[in-house]
Structure prediction request, 339 residues.
Amino acid sequence: MEALRAVLQGRRRLLVLTHNNPDPDSLGGAVGLREFARKAAGVDSRFAITGRILRAENQAMVRELDIEVDRLETLALGEFDCVALVDTQPGFGHTCVPPAVGVDIVLDHHLCAEAAPSLREVAFVDVRPEVGATSSIVAGHLQAAGVTPCQEVATALAYGIKTDTADLSRNVSDLDLRAYDFLFPYVDRQRLVAICSPRLPAAYFQALKDALGKVRLYDGVTLCSLGRTTSAEMVAEVADLLLRMEGVRAVFCGGLVGTSYYVSVRTEMGADAWGLIRDAMGDEDGTCGGHGSVAGGTIQLGSADARTLKRLERRLERNILRSMGVSGSNAAVLGDVDD
Ligand SMILES: [Mn+2]
Prediction:
């Protein structure tokens, strides 16, 4: 905490960045770091994104908690003399850091080989893969600094921890539990409930229906292709849902957005999702990262035609089945039950 404070102190203005399309943990970590900068180091800050906030829950989080999000291209980068990456690292595929910008602070909990060399130039690095949420790492720094977070920040951090640890059930460390305990008295439980179950557009149910029609069940391994889909979030959401099916050890879910193919992997507790996604992606042109039983990746396709997509999915499926030690001959699909 003292090292983080020391890097911030005396700076004019901090710019906080995260994934292109931020999830709750990155939103929580970002507002938590802004609170730390302001209350523990007296530094003003902004939070900027390059993509969109997609999931209905994440949009509700921004709305309910008045999270200030700027578009990166609207900010004058010259006004900032300190840059932080939260819940991601330099070089990650889903993160855009302008080439002229040097990163000073990295707070994250993902394992990733690709980031390692560029991390050496960063003044403050706090990457703890054993922790379930970046929000827990940030909350820990707030607690250590004796900062009482405001209700909105505490609720954002708590929701970040809730989502990345599946309600403190997945990839949970002592720090996650301590952070949640620390935050809970300041959490606005009414707004937390509003964030957890927002109304969903009809298009969401259409996408879900389409996805469930394409599920293939192997021996404990579930594959699902969303084909061309609306967002990487939908791929992750379907993967989360399918892991709840009885007998499923691992879920691989993929979908094409533009010319980027997104993959989400979910495994039972104790399994290594990152190892699985690396095996699945093989030599494809892409990046992946993950922690514990959750991993995600992106593959860049030269073209987005149906044949290219089909071939890619066939290669991935072969790699996955080989890596899981499952024969590819006995797939079942949903909806085949006679009634
Ligand atoms: Mn996270």
Notes: The first helix runs from residue 2 to 8. The mean pLDDT is 92.
